[in-house]
Design goal:
The chain is of the alpha/beta class and 397 residues long. 44% of the residues lie in helices and 12% in strands. The chain has helices spanning 4-14, 17-21, 25-45, 72-78, 96-110, 126-137, 152-160, 179-189, 203-218, 234-246, 262-268, 274-277, 300-305, 317-330, 337-353, 377-382; strands at 68-70, 81-86, 118-122, 141-147, 164-168, 193-195, 225-228, 251-256, 311-314, 358-363. The strands form 2 sheets. Strands 1-2-10-7-8-9 form a 6-stranded mixed β-sheet, with helices on both faces. A 4-stranded parallel β-sheet has the order 5-4-3-6, sandwiched between helices. It is globular, with a radius of gyration of 26 Å.
């Protein structure tokens, strides 16, 4: 019934006057039978409407199930299959949509957050944007405290989503006026307030068990390595936990930006950097222009998957800047700073493993929310990081 034209043509051929005149009744009947069979099989073979074609009841239904994209330039250069999970295709534009949805849904279910309540978070930007979207969709409000050195686009996005925004100077997490600590105090002092606590709330980790499941399914269970940087630690812990529960041979690599202590934690079991040992830490929490990754303490989310990390690499700001330019020029991928650093890590992993391996990393967000810093040539020049627009991948050590 789904292919009437094919059926009709076969029917007419079977019962043309010429065929009947030649007494081809048997051939005609056979052709008719074939027509019925072909029409039936073609109808059965046509795929049912994809769930992607169905109407959704809320914007939150669009979160997750993001595509896996082959990064052609890196794959072809290394002989590996290198894929990026396109988290910038979430409705809020980043992987943090998954975390925000999991946190808010769990809080509403437990009663920690009431209908119409206010979610508080301290964030460098992306989690706040995602929380603003999710709370609006689920009938709640959002207040975000962020460091004033975060890209201005993120603050503007937060306000556009209807969140109340408070920008504060960046200080150490041990300082009472660190943006996370301010958000916690405000939640405690506000009636109906809830501190989402993305660094320590294991809903973050749980959200990425699903991300890991998606990667496993999309690769047909053929993953040799997973590579990611860590900020809260939820992404690398959750994805690694799922993948290692299904694939005992998969290797997990951490890529760590300048100033972060996680590389030393994985390699040497201690949380310190050379800068800290020499007492030369700068005023910023991390000595890097990348945002949302790198940390100098152990979070609950990171420790959930720490034992699953097999190896660690250090990345530099210069490598991330050049990688971002490389990806947009060679692959048409316009990504943010953490995505670029993840791709630096994927390239390092490919070189360490050798050709023939399948490697997956995360494209956390797009470059649109990094225009004033990471993708600003004026800003990069000021930071002595002017891109060289390299013709080869030799810029990654």
């Amino acid at each position: 019934g789904r292919h009437p034209k094919a059926f009709l043509l076969l029917f007419l051929f079977a019962f043309t006057p010429a065929a009947m005149a030649r007494g081809a009744w048997i051939a005609g009947a056979a052709a008719l039978g074939a027509g019925v069979a072909v029409g039936f099989l073609l109808g059965r073979a046509r795929p049912a409407a994809s769930s992607k074609d169905e109407a959704r009841s809320s914007v939150t239904d669009l979160i997750g199930n993001t595509p896996l994209i082959r990064i052609n330039s890196l794959s072809d250069a290394t002989g590996c299959e290198i894929y990026g999970k396109a988290e910038f295709m979430n409705p809020g534009g980043s992987i943090k949509d998954r975390v925000a949805l999991q946190i808010v849904r769990e809080a509403l279910a437990s009663g920690d957050l009431g209908p119409g309540g206010t979610v508080f978070e301290g964030t460098a930007g992306s989690t706040g944007v995602s929380l603003s979207l999710v709370t609006a969709a689920l009938g709640c409000k959002c207040h975000v405290v962020l460091p004033d050195d975060a890209a201005i686009e993120k603050a503007e996005l937060l306000q556009a989503y209807g969140a109340s925004v408070e920008r504060v100077r960046p200080v150490s997490i041990s300082h009472r006026d660190h943006f996370v600590n301010i958000a916690r105090r405000k939640a405690e002092s506000t009636e109906g307030g809830f501190f989402s606590n993305q660094f320590e709330n294991l809903a973050n980790f749980r959200a990425h068990l699903k991300t890991g499941e998606e990667i496993y399914t999309q690769t047909g269970g053929r993953v040799d390595a997973f590579v990611a940087a860590a900020g809260t630690g939820g992404t690398i812990a959750g994805i690694s936990s799922y993948l290692k529960s299904r694939l005992s041979s998969v290797r997990v690599f951490l890529i760590d930006p300048p100033g972060s202590s996680l590389y030393n934690r994985v390699k040497r079991g201690v949380m310190y950097t050379k800068v800290e040992a020499e007492g030369k830490r700068l005023k910023n929490p991390f000595d890097t222009i990348t945002e949302g990754i790198g940390i100098n303490r152990l979070t609950r989310n990171f420790t959930e998957g720490e034992h699953l990390i097999d190896e660690a690499f250090q990345g530099t700001d210069a490598e991330a800047v050049e990688m971002a330019r490389w990806l947009v020029r060679e692959d048409g991928l316009f990504v943010g700073s953490s995505s670029a650093m993840n791709c630096v890590g994927a390239l390092k992993a490919a070189r360490a493993l050798g050709p023939g391996h399948t490697i997956v990393t995360i494209l956390c967000d797009g470059g649109q929310r990094h225009l004033s810093k990471f993708h600003s040539r004026a800003y990069l020049k000021k930071m002595n990081l002017s891109p060289r627009d390299c013709a080869t991948l030799d810029y990654v050590n």
